[in-house]
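Researcher: Go.
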Amino acid sequence: NRVAAVFTGNDGVWVATGRTPTADPAVSFVGADLEQFRWVQGPRTSGLPFVAARRMVGRGSELWLATDNGVLRVTPRDEDFRLFDEGRGLPDARVLDLAQRSGRIAAGTAHGIALFGDSTGFVPLAPRFRDAALAVELSGDTVWVGTDLGLFAALPGEEDLLQPEALAGALSLQAPVVDLAWRGDTLVALSRDRLLWRDPASGRFTAGPLLGNNIGRLHTVVNGRGVLYLAGERGVASATLATPLRRAITQGDLPGRVTDLAVDDRYLWVATEGGLVRLALDLVGR
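Model: Structure:
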C-alpha cells in the first residue's frame, strides 16, 4: 500500500512501492481501467535493492527510480535492473529527485547533483555544491536545482551552483524550492506555499500568490493541459500560475499522506501511503 512514486506510461501508470513489514519493494504497472496489473520485484532471494523510492522517470523502455540506495534503472520487459550508487558516480546514495529530458538524466541527492554519463554511471556536477538538491530539471546543458536557499543552476565547467541575477537580489524569491516542472517552455518552481516561474523570453522570475495551507506543506507540482496539479502532505489541488488553489481534495477523501502525482489525458494519479488513487480530472480541474 505504501506508494512512493508514480509515472505515466502507455494506457496506465507505473508505481513504486516501498518496503513494509509485510511486503518487499516493487515496481508495478496499473492499467488505466484498473484491470491490468504487472509486478517487477527482482530476484526472489534479494528483491529490489531499496527501502523507499522518491521519484520515477522514464527513458525509452526504461524506468529510473530515485531511491534511498541510489538510482535504480529497471527494464520491465525483461525484469532487468541495475543500481547506480556512490561507487558509480553519485555524490550520495540518497537520491531526492530525478529528471529526464531528451534522453539526459539528472539526479539530485542529499549531498550534490550528477548527470548520467553512460553505462558506467553518473558524473558529478558542480562538485563544490554538497548540500541537498531537493529538485532537479534539465534545459539544454543547464541543470536547474531547487535547494533550501532557493533556485540555482549548474552549468558545464562550473565548480559551484550559480544563482540567476534576477533571483539574487529578491528576498521574496529566496524560499526553499522543493519541486520543478516545465509548463511548455516556462520553468515552474514550487516552494512550500507558492509557485515561482521563469519567463523564457526575458529570463525574469515571478512569484505567484500564496496558495494557502488547506492541503498542507506543498511538495510536488506536475503540469496538466490547462492547469498545474499540486500535492501537499494532506491532499491535492489544481492551480494556475496566477491563481490560488482550487478544488482541493484532502486527506479525509484520500487513504493516506500524499507522496507523488502523475497526470494523463483523463486522470490524476495520486500516490499515497495508503495506496494508489485514480481521480477523474473533472474532480480537481482541467
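Model: The first helix runs from residue 165 to 168.
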